[in-house]
Write a structure and sequence with these properties.
This protein is mainly beta. It folds into 2 domains: about 160 residues, Immunoglobulins (Immunoglobulin-like, Sandwich), CATH 2.60.40.10; about 120 residues, Sandwich (Immunoglobulin-like). Helices cover about 15% and strands about 45% of the residues. The strands form 2 sheets. It has an 11-stranded mixed beta sheet. It has a 5-stranded antiparallel beta sheet with strand order 4-3-7-8-15, with no helix packed on it. The chain is elongated, with a radius of gyration of 22 Å. It starts with a helix and ends in a 5-residue tail after the last helix.
Length: about 290
């Protein structure tokens, strides 16, 4: 599941970047750079993936022809290397992308170098350090009637840039004979940096419950919804994963060199992973948030 998720995020990230490429983007002319990279190394996954574009002087749609590229990664601490394989992805808008992948699990807090080399010896490379395995704790739970706030703390990590929440709830069968458990995903986590350098993720179950009832297609007060547990997933990243324009806007970041850590090429490769944390709310807190109590 985590490997599939990593590849899916890389595909989505690179497709959004391509969608940002329109006629207003300056073409890359008279350059010896070979490739553009987009993606990240994920220490929670046993498959790594990045998208590789061939720089051809103008912005053209990639074909299914094999890229003139040997892609390799090196663990700069252990010296271990891996050769990446090409895969061709066709997006919904019929554009084609080359997503290279390798079967290994990146180590936390470790520097890596990724290179792509052409037959004539031109090489694009990037160095990235994966983020360490963080420490997660509940900072506080504030609960009053119809107002519940949960603050979680991620420490010993460079950066958290987003968070998402899954609510696992039980609802009764129509005949009342039993209940079934349903997972509802909501991209509602709010992220902020604390004064000590740790990162705070805030969720509001009392606000999210409206989206939960809507997803279940049930009416409050008529169908009981019991809260089993909550999973919060923070996307922990390397320190350099910070947009120079203040937001991840494909229309801006796609401009060559705007958001890049790649040498002799363009693009960005960071380190990142979704770090999950599960919690349960006391009955009184769940009731304050609007859930039913068994």
């Amino acid at each position: 599941m985590r490997a599939t998720r990593t590849i899916a995020i890389v595909i989505l990230l690179s497709s959004l970047t391509w969608m940002g490429c329109d006629e207003s983007v300056d073409p890359v002319l008279q350059t010896d750079e070979a490739f553009t990279f987009y993606g990240f190394l994920d220490p929670s996954s046993d498959i790594q993936a990045i998208r590789v574009f061939e720089i051809e002087g103008t912005l053209t749609r990639t074909t299914t022809d094999p890229l003139d590229a040997v892609v390799q990664s090196t663990n700069l601490r252990s010296g271990e290397t891996a050769v990446w394989q090409d895969s061709v992805i066709t997006y919904l808008n019929n554009t084609v992308g080359h997503v290279f992948y390798a079967n290994f699990q990146a180590e936390h807090g470790t520097p890596y170098e990724i290179t792509a080399t052409t037959n004539d010896g031109r090489q694009t490379r990037v160095q990235v350090t994966t983020p360490p395995d963080g420490v997660v704790a509940i900072e506080q739970i504030l609960s009053t009637r119809s107002q519940v706030q949960v603050d979680l703390n991620w420490s010993a990590v460079p950066r958290v840039i987003q968070a998402e929440v899954s609510y696992f709830v039980s609802v009764p069968f129509p005949d009342g004979s039993d209940t079934t458990t349903v997972r509802v995903d909501i991209p509602s986590g709010r992220v902020g940096e604390n004064s000590d350098g740790s990162w705070r993720v805030t969720i509001l179950p009392s606000a999210d419950i409206a989206a939960i009832f809507s997803a279940l297609n049930v009416q409050p007060g008529r169908t009981p919804v019991f809260l089993d547990n909550i999973e919060v997933r923070a996307f922990v990243t390397s320190e350099d994963w910070e947009s120079p324009v203040g937001a991840f806007d494909p229309e801006l970041l796609v401009q060559p060199g705007t958001f890049s850590n790649v040498e002799d090429g363009f693009g960005f490769v960071g380190g990142g992973y979704f770090d999950p944390f599960e919690l349960q709310l006391d009955d009184s807190v769940a009731r304050d948030a609007g859930f039913s109590i068994r």
